[in-house]
Each structure stands twice: as structure tokens, then as C-alpha cells.
Amino acid sequence: MTHVHVAGLTKAFGDRTVLDGVDFDVAPGEFVSVIGPSGSGKSTIFNMIAGLDTPDAGVVEAPKSAYMPQKDLLFPWRTVLDNTTLGLEIAGTNKKEARARARELFPVFGLDGYEKARPSEMSGGMRQRAALLRTVVQGREVLLLDEPFGALDSLTRTSMQEWLQNVWLDYRWTVLMITHDIREAVYLSDRVIVLSDKPARVRRQVEVPLPRPRRLDVVTTPEFARVESELMEVLISRSY
Ligand SMILES: Nc1ncnc2c1ncn2[C@@H]1O[C@H](COP(=O)(O)OP(=O)(O)O)[C@@H](O)[C@H]1O
Ligand SMILES: [Mg+2]
Fold it and tell me: How far is CA 65 from CA 69, 106, 224, in A?
């Protein structure tokens, strides 16, 4: 079974080819990470899965997805609750229902009691969870997360990774996540897709056969190290 199907995806901006026949599939409930050099076209692929951009050639088949863009900022003048309802409001849900649905998720996202706070009153990790809540509350089966933890310090990032694994184990969304962090990709994913430098193609797909739930210290196991070094090798061998 396939939930997201990408085949022969090709895209140029002007005379610059960015994607050159990208192929991959994602199964329902699978957590897949995409890693690749900066500017290799990762966000462009997500834009097309989300239907915000169209390919020059190739196929993208996906149900309507919830997209958390690379810079998913909260509006400082809105309360946290009113930030988390934005996606629903844009999709046409009335405010009362949007608030009710978002409120239910506040405890799951560790934001209980912060409904009326402003983003400036929260830590970076909490703001990021609020942005994720805004994505998840849309009730879509497929989540597209573009570097969701990119702006966080390393300790906060680690605890967010553990937290995301745990909510994902409860909800089992199909997740596609872009990251620059190999360790984050291995820790969270069932499979990691490595893109080449641009024009991007899929260089390799690496399965992560580690049982779940994964404790944070799984990163010290030989099996984790094996996957991590395979990915490292593919990434650094690109242009030398
Ligand atoms: N709308 C656009 N118009 C022109 N060039 C773009 C546009 N979107 C992306 N690009 C270019 O395409 C390349 C890939 O961008 P992007 O998908 O954002 O890469 P990544 O997310 O892997 O860092 C970059 O060189 C970027 O400058
Ligand atoms: Mg990007």
C-alpha cells in the first residue's frame, strides 16, 4: 500500500534544473526522513506534495496533507490558541469549532494552560510544539514537516525528538520529514531517503530496523551506528 507516490519528479526554475527524476513511495503510517545537501530541492518536493507548486514532469500522488513549512512562525500578537487554529480557519472551519479541536490537543503537546499566552511567553520548544499542533489539528493523515527542529538548541531538540516519536506512536500519521541532522533522521524514521546534490535524484534509501519505542540511548547501539555511518558515507561521497 502506498500513501504518497512520487515518480519521475522533475522541476526547473528558469534554466536551472532542481529536480531530475525523483522517485519514492511512502506507506501509510510510515515515518520517512529526507536528507540532502542545502539547495538540493527538498522543500521544492514538499511544495509539490502539498499542491503549492506543480512539477514540469512526473507524478505526485498524495492525499491532502498538513504542511509545516521550514519557517512556520507564530504570530506574536495572537494568543497561542489563536495561532494553533490558523490552519483550520484558512481551511474554512469556523472559529468556535477550530478552537475546540485545538484545545483538545494542548495536553498532548505539553501546552496545557498556555492557551491564552503569547508566543513570546513560551520557550523555543513550546513554540515549536505549538506550530506542530497547528499542523496536526488539521486532521490530515499525511504530515509534511520541513526541518521542524532546525532552530532549537541541541538539548531541546533531543527532547522534542523523543516527544515526537511518542505522539507519532499514538497517532501513526504518515510522516515525511526534512532534516539536516543524520542522527535525528535515524532516531525518528523507519526509512531515510538521501537526495543527491542538485539536480536532485534519490541516491539511496536506507531502512532503519530499530524496534520502537526507541529510547534516547539507542544512539549508542552498534545497529544505530551502522545506519548512521551508511548515511554519512552516502552524503559525504557526493562530490569528492
Ligand atoms: N520559486 C522559486 N524560484 C526560483 N528558484 C527557486 C524557487 N524555489 C526554490 N528555488 C531554488 O531551487 C533550489 C532548491 O531549493 P529548495 O527546494 O528550497 O532546497 P532545499 O530545501 O533542499 O534547501 C535552490 O537553488 C533555490 O534557490
Ligand atoms: Mg528547504
Answer: 12, 21, 30
